[in-house]
Specification:
DUF373 family protein; elongated; 3 domains; transmembrane; DUF373
Length: 374
């Protein structure tokens, strides 16, 4: 028996139509092809499946023993996709009720899908490989359409457009290094704009920006406090950065000699930690509020504000010690208080969660017993 295997390595059939794979038999395969063609007429796997049906019909008219099936992988990567194709080939072979030796004819649409041939060969002998090429794609008149498809296809734009965009950015970056070369500034600016455009298209920044705006709009209309908390936290972070830089400048002006990197970090942390801690408290309390309103609040979520306070206490004490603002006794006390605050909050909320969970479990058990008695 000849098994005509149509390979869809990235599972366009399953993702776009919802068909469960493998698809075995002439009629089910035709239904799958029509469904995929309806969902995405431009998908090359449509031609692969119809080519498999054509081969099946041609051999069937010659009274040869033949079967057709579609096997798919997934879009997560070559190794996982190949393994999934191998598993589906095993399923197809197990479903064939024949005493004849089975060989396979593999139908693909390109070299990427043909990378799975060794996996198929390890399970069934392969008589041949048929690659389907759409004739119209070779014509010059389809060049604009092909380029447009590359720009819109998330599977190819990341591998094609991003390197091209980086290459276009090389010249402007070199131009910045020799900024006095004024005649080339126009060419460098143009090249930079093209590079940024291609990189943004390759990374799908426009789609991500639209998704972020949509999430923000839903959060605003849903009354989620995290949206307000994030805005306030961003402002607090900015204030913290400004305050940290001011403290660093004061330390540099007060010191005649050059200060080392540890002292610089300590000065920045000493001036900004209270603002950053306030931002952390704001975001954690906003998240806790939303979780409570949604009915998903768990006791361990309440640890977040205490952890923020613990970390802030420790960092403030360490930075103050490096700046000679406090004695070592204060540092030891702050480290102890910060550590104990985190440990006590963790144990407290763990005990509360365990106790309330046990009470709910006992209540559910008692309700079940009363129901059984009735």
């Amino acid at each position: 028996m000849l098994l005509v295997l149509c390979v869809d390595l990235d599972d366009d059939l399953g993702r776009k139509t919802g068909f469960s794979t493998p698809v075995i038999g002439r009629d089910p395969v035709e239904e799958a092809a029509v469904a995929l063609a309806t969902a995405d007429p431009e998908d090359s796997d449509v031609n692969v499946i119809f080519q498999g049906i054509h081969i099946y019909d041609d051999l069937d008219e010659r009274d040869e023993s033949v079967e057709v099936a579609v096997v798919t992988g997934n879009d997560e990567g070559d190794v996982k996709a190949n393994r999934e194709v191998g598993d589906e080939v095993d399923t197809v072979l197990a479903s064939l009720s024949t005493a004849e030796d089975v060989t396979a004819l593999v139908v693909t649409d390109g070299a990427q899908d043909e990378s799975v041939i060794p996996i198929i060969r390890s399970r069934v002998p392969i008589d041949g490989v048929r690659r389907v090429v759409v004739r119209q794609a070779q014509n010059l008149e389809s060049m604009y359409y092909t380029i447009k498809q590359v720009l819109n296809d998330p599977e190819t734009r990341g591998t094609v457009l991003i390197p091209l965009g980086i290459l276009l950015l090389i010249y402007p970056l070199a131009l910045i290094g020799s900024v006095l070369d004024m005649p080339g500034i126009v060419l460098g600016t143009t090249s930079a704009l093209l590079g940024f455009y291609l990189i943004s298209r390759g990374l799908g920044l426009g789609d991500r920006l639209d998704e972020a705006v949509e999430r923000g709009r839903r959060s605003l209309y849903a009354g989620r406090t995290t949206l307000l908390a994030y805005v306030v936290a961003a402002a607090l972070f900015v204030l913290g950065g400004v305050s940290g830089m001011d403290t660093l400048e004061e330390v540099q002006q007060a010191t005649a000699d050059d200060i080392g990197a540890p002292v610089m970090l300590a000065a920045f942390a000493y001036g900004s930690i209270q603002w950053i801690a306030a931002a952390g408290l704001t975001t954690s309390l906003g998240q806790i509020t939303d979780e409570y309103i949604a009915g998903r609040l768990e006791w361990r979520y309440l640890n977040a504000p205490f952890y923020v306070l613990s970390i802030a206490i420790v960092l403030h004490a360490v930075s103050a010690y490096f700046l000679n603002e406090v004695e070592i006794n204060y540092l030891a006390t702050a480290l102890t208080v910060g550590t104990l605050l985190g440990i006590v909050s963790t144990l407290t909320f763990a005990v509360l969660e365990s106790r309330f969970s046990d009470e709910e479990s006992d209540h559910d058990t008692e309700g079940t017993r009363q129901t059984d008695r009735v």
